Amino acid sequence: MPSDPTLRACSYCNKHYKRQGFRTHEKACRKQSEQQRENIELARDIRRVSGMASSVSQPEVDDIQIRYHPNSGRPMQVHHFEDYRCGPGAPVVSLTIDPEPWRPFRTRIDFEVAELAHEAALTHEQIDRLIRLIHRSRCELFTLRNHKDVRNTWDAASYKLTPFTKEEVVVPFRGVDQTFQFYHRSLWDWAIDLLQDPEVGPHFVFDAQQLSKFDGEKFVRFIHEPWTTNMFWEYQSKIPADAKPLAFILYADKAKLSSFGRAKGYPVVARCANLPTAVRNGEGLGGGRVVGWLPIVKEDKKHSGKPAFVNFKNTVWHTSFLKLLACLVPLSKLGSSVKCWDDIVRIFYPIILILSADYEEQVVMALIRGLMGKFPCPICLVPREELSKISNMHRLRSSVDAKALRARARESTTLEVREQILSSESLRDVDNSFDTMEHTDVFRALSFDKLHFNDEGNFDHLWTELQKWIADSGRQAAVQIDSLQIASFESFPRWRNLNHFDQVVSVSFSDGTKYEDISKLIVFAAHNVFQRDADPHVYLLLCCIRSYVELNMYASLEVHTEDTIRDGRNTLSKFAELMDIYIKDTADLSEKSWNFPKIHLSAHLFDDIEAKGVTRNYNTKPNEKMHGPLKDAYQDRTNFKNFAVQILRYNHDSLIAEYIRSKVDCLDTQNLSLSDLPDPSEADELELTEPTDTQHFSLGSRQAMKSFADIEVDNIGNPAFDRFRIKLNEFLNRAFAANNIPCPDGRRVRLTADDMITEFRFIKVNYESLVDWRVSTDYLRCSPMFHGSPRYDSVIIQAETGAIFAKLLLVFTCTVGNVQYPIALTLPYDQPVGAHLRKDKDFKFWRVKAKPRASTECFSVQSIIRGCVLAEDGTRPNEFLVVDTTDTDMFLRMKEIRTETGYH
């Protein structure tokens, strides 16, 4: 043993380290040791399952079965639910750390100053001033001389990752060549950057999988990521057995860069479908990347709207996109080998698996004629006049059919005949760039966009229709919905990740997230304003909206099973049925046409889920978030002239800065255990004194200790606190007996008026989501004043008789013996509600009733399942409606409760 008293031995690796920073090393070493042990156990399970096909003769409930594509050469595996539920994650790999990751910056401080100047968007002059100041008071080598030196170093660093290149796009119009600039990265080189990065690489999944969960009788298939779907499986079957699919997700849409939208950009964003959602849709190198900047054809008053000019604009788009795809086209036919991060050489065949776009962009990608065509759907050949009939099935489009139709049209002798042939399927006389990719069918790649088709599409139409009825009903109806009644928007309980509205009736335009939140709550706010008999049409519309919201909840699920897909299809059929009735009943009262493409596109929703995974794989929302930094770059980093190249240079500099920063952080992590600097997290640990169950809950917002006598004085006249101490004593004695906890000194618990408790006004509750079986978290408040208003959240509690709803009134800890117990004083909502109302069945309401306020009960905080939102029904005293649309878990949880009670 070393004699140096400043060194401590790590119990996990048996090495010795300085005391400062030792706890950080020990935590990291413990985590690595536990991960290695889990990997060993997992490997044993896999060997046991693969070595003995019949070893799991009788699977346990919730066991997960993984069937790999035959070309993978991997045997089927079965995991116990506890081992799989959070997913296998990225394997632990030993990273080779670059000791100087800031290169080509000459020193680390050179990089960090340049990084700061880049993030702060400093001008050339400000950078020079900053550098002069640093040179006057430096303590480590700083070599940057001025802005030009910084710029030159950024340029030298740009080749760490695939840079942008510029190409000319030449397309003739009316006999004159028109030239445009197109900027893009090599898609293939960008993919190789990811495949060779030691941090991103381990997250890749190369083989198609079919996942199933055992329900006690059979394995039920479930789908989430692209590699768990039918389309990925089919594609792997089409390429050589020793090859792997490399699947791309591409997005394109115009972005307004200036405040009034006069300056626009046209970014193309790429994501890799082989990476899990958390990486692919997250920040960092593995997230979405701007890979192209399409030219925008200026409108010409002489030609705008004419077929020839529209075809010209589409030709410019596809000619440009062909240049983006050019690096992938030969590889989609022949494949290419890549030495990956783990030094294994793999053969990849690229495919455009998913195209993420709004309707207008899908029209361009599919080269159809859009709203004015006979067949406006980019997926199938539904006639324009039948778009509202969602249940009707029509022939699907395919690239092979479209290509053949264009070829037949071009063989015609006259333009009139050519136009007749093309218009028979609403196609344009332009070659589709995606046709050059082997095994890529543009019509199959186009995907349901929840943001634009539902939140800003279907609900926008339903909301406008409801606003019309509210206006026709007079001002009182609007006031009731917005603010007057108990269940108005203004009085709805606050909830994390749910926008709170003071008024909504006047909202005529909003972003998709706010529209989605309005849709979740509007039926709860309006059900007492419009009655079935007095207002039959608007009541029916509310039924349509409720059905739409259920459909949107199924569209939002992060994991789909065979059962949820079946239930989702049934919900779609119900929505279609209600809409047919509403359209028919109001045909003479409204001039509105419901034959718009977005309502029809819902018909393809569940086909897309089965083919390409859950909707977050192709929702445009993560891509549209990338418009913000581009707009900021336009405002702060350009001179507003020839801005495309300036924006893209800044975009690439940001990527390089992010890349170098991640490598510097890895180096810091490696060096921290040997550092003499204190670990800042140690101070945080010492301050963390709140009682916590790290698996389920933690308490926060600690208040000063109070005696029971003080609490009784503070709550005189509040029946909720009548017999508070007696109720607590009774609860503790029952709980101790039920859980075989010995009472101190063998006597029953009898807290006195002088005993102290500590109040907490914040609870963080972790629970297992019914959707994806991962840990989700609710942030709950129990406070007399939170952001200017009292807030006492509601919860679902596991009581002795089953799950009940309750309102938090006080969360505290009390000490019995030497042990602290976290307790919640609640008002249960478990009174009988009597006969169900007709509207409860029509709107799928779940009604609960509060006990008298003097009937409060104590429960262990451990018994809280999760939080919830309850909307008070002002027409029935003490009755509340459970808002089942706050999130996908709550939606499935309430569906399960209704099924178990036989109330649908």
Structure explained in plain terms:
By secondary structure, the chain is of the alpha+beta class. 39% of the residues lie in helices and 20% in strands. The protein has 29 helices and 29 strands. Strands 17, 18, 19, 20, 21, 22, 23, 24, 26 and 27 form a ten-stranded antiparallel beta sheet that branches. A seven-stranded mixed beta sheet has the order 5-6-13-12-9-15-14, sandwiched between helices. A five-stranded antiparallel beta sheet has the order 4-3-7-8-16. Strand 17 and strand 18 form a beta hairpin. Helix 3 packs across helix 24. The relative contact order is 0.08. The N terminus is likely disordered.
> What general outline do the C-alpha atoms trace?
globular
Radius of gyration: 31 Å
Oligomer: single chain
Largest sheet: 10 strands, antiparallel
Q: Report the total helices.
A: 29
Strands, count: 29
Unreliable segments (pLDDT under 50, ≥5 consecutive)?
1-6, 42-56, 680-689
Q: Overall pLDDT, averaged?
A: 89
Structure at a glance:
This protein is α+β, with helices and mostly antiparallel strands and 904 residues long. It has 29 helices and 29 strands.
Label this structure with key terms:
904 residues; alpha+beta; ten-stranded antiparallel β-sheet; seven-stranded mixed β-sheet; 29 strands; 39% helix; globular; disordered N terminus
